[in-house]
Amino acid sequence: MGRRVSDEINMTASRTWSGLGACRERAGLLLRLGHLSIVLLLALAPPAFAQDIATDWIDGERHRTRLIAGDVPGATPGTVTAFVEMSMDKGWKTYWRNPGTAGGIPPEFKWSNSKNITKLEVLFPVPQVLSDKAGDVIGYEEYAIFPLRITPADVTAPVQLDLTVNYGICAKLCVPAEAAFSLAIPPAPLPSAGPDAARAFAAVPRVGAERKPVDPSDLKVERPAGKPGIVRMSALFPGDPASAAMFVSVPDGRYLPLPARQATGSGSASFSASAGRVTFEMDFTSSPADLEALKGATVSVTMVGEKGQSDDSFVID
User: What are phi and psi of 28, to 5 degrees?
Assistant: First the structure.
């Protein structure tokens, strides 16, 4: 009797130790699997630098600005793209290269203290025409992003962008403003700059070989006989000609009249199903001295169609 009890106790103990051993094995397996899961998660996680490359927001009168950098679709290989982002209060606006008939302060960008930059191009997305009692403003309402295309001297080294922007914002009153930024941009690959930056970059007019079939093309310029104050421009606009628009500017920011589209069937414009030649005129009739002062100036023309946009230029003779 006593021996059977002893044997049963030994068998129970053996089963218990065996169960504890199995538990330890299962626990070890779970720990190993857990460790493997953590390793896999770390391997699949984005690298540590894949976070926003951006300055803090700078608060100003009725607006705030910051500088960001990152990758966007369509960026030129070998370049770095940064963006000046501006958020304004409701009803406030800022200006394009040519501020329009209402006047204003076009933005000015200075980066001379930056490092590892061979070239920096300020790119202007297609603007809006915003009309009020003071006249027409050419610019951006409540939100704007200005892309900066940077060519580094050494693509394998960081870019140090020290940028000062002078600009104006306007509602009923216009306020001059300045923002200074300093941003270290690591070499490629960079994280995405985000959807807002991508949309702004996609809205930049294309030039030369960058142009797509949907973009306006074939700019022609003439000074019509008997109309000394008129500069006439026409181009082919694919798609709906009602969407056609032109904006003009000169490098020093001087005011130019907003080109006015000429009526269909007047002899100034004719349309076809695929691409219509649409004509616009700049009218200096009331200010011939302004046109005379522009002789020899290079005029940039931004042409906006239904699905595309492009830039071209001509010299006023």
Answer: -65, -40
